[in-house]
Specification:
It contains nine helices and seven strands; from the N terminus they run αβββββββαααααααα. It is of the alpha/beta class. The relative contact order is 0.05.
Length: 339
């Protein structure tokens, strides 16, 4: 089968157009034979970023800018990032636009440390990049950036000083300086007094040191006496140490134990002393004796002739004597009879 030249030209033209479209889309960041992973990033200033600009992670290109869109107010610009490589980006990763005046503006993704990763069509966090001059200053000499901040701080401090130091403040400063002069004068006087105190001939400190020296001299002169006193004190303590204190305490403990046993016996009904203290029979006997004595006295008062006779011709009552105590007086308290 013979192919005509027109067919060959048409096929080559179609292939050329297809290659041109694919190359153009490739330059724009679009691919057809690989899996794409799109992310969105929101900025307030894209700093000259264009479509198909590269996207880097740790210095390696992992995609490109697919699209850039802005709302009517131009306060928020949404950049669509097309990732052509399979990369796991932590959710706290940050996309930073890095402009390059000598090259192409690009996006650098700073990886985070989170354990979870961004999914497709998620929105990645963004961060404003430093200016070109500031970056150059920090790279050339980091001190220049610090000086710039210090100058700004110094300007604000000077402005605050100018606002604070008014006429009243100046007057207060003059008063403070006057008081400072008086203070220095007082310090001069105090130093003179201190010099007088520290004078080696007439100073109070020198006199105190002389007294201390005299005291230590007296101690040195009486060293023998102090040695004798200490020796006597050592002998006394040695004598105390030789006393058999333990034996004495043992004897004292035995005596206390015997005393406790004796008191314990007195509290019981055993033994003569215990029975005298605790048995009620002696008390009852003494009570009965007292009753008998009272009965004898009552009988003597009632019948005196029984015991004494005053009549010459009378005769003495010779009735039988009471040999056994009456039942009502045995072990019973005496009851006073009414006269």
């Amino acid at each position: 089968m013979k192919i005509s030249n027109e067919t060959k030209i048409g096929a080559l033209t179609a292939i050329a157009i297809t290659m041109l479209v694919m190359g153009f889309n490739f330059l724009k960041g679009k691919t057809f034979f690989s899996k794409n992973h799109k992310l969105f990033a929101k900025y307030t200033n894209v700093q000259g970023l264009l479509k198909s600009n590269p996207v880097f992670v740790n210095g390696m290109q992992v995609g490109s800018v697919f699209d850039i869109q802005a709302n009517e107010t131009m306060k928020e610009i949404v950049v669509t990032i097309n990732l052509t490589k399979e990369v796991n980006l932590p959710i706290n990763s940050v996309a930073i636009i890095n402009p390059n005046p000598l090259g192409t503006t690009r996006i650098d993704i700073k990886l985070g440390d989170a354990t979870t990763h961004l999914k497709k069509v998620d929105t990645i966090k963004t961060q404003a990049s430093v200016g070109i001059m500031d970056a150059a200053l920090e790279r050339i000499d980091p001190v220049l950036g610090q000086v710039k901040g210090a100058v700004k701080s110094l300007d604000s401090v000077l402005a605050n000083i100018n606002s604070v130091v008014d006429a009243n403040a100046k007057a207060n400063i003059q008063v403070m300086l006057f008081n400072l002069n008086k203070t220095t004068a007082s310090l001069t006087s105090s130093s003179a007094s201190l010099q007088t105190l520290l004078n080696t001939q007439t100073g109070a400190l020198a006199k105190s040191l002389n007294n201390v020296s005299s005291f230590t001299g007296n101690l040195a002169n009486n060293n023998d006496k102090l040695t004798s006193v200490m020796s006597n004190l050592d002998k006394t303590t040695e004598s105390f140490s030789k006393l058999d204190v333990e034996k004495t305490l043992t004897t004292l403990n035995g005596t206390i134990t015997e005393l406790k046993n004796t008191i314990g016996k007195l509290n019981t009904n055993t033994g003569t002393a215990g029975m005298l203290l605790n048995d009620t029979k002696l008390y009852n006997n003494l009570t009965a004796t007292s009753n008998k004595l009272n009965l004898l006295l009552d009988d003597f008062k009632t019948n005196p002739k029984r015991y004494i006779s005053f009549s010459v011709f009378g005769k003495k009552n010779k009735g039988p004597m009471l040999m056994v105590p009456l039942p009502d007086t045995v072990n019973a308290p005496y009851i006073n009879l009414k006269q």
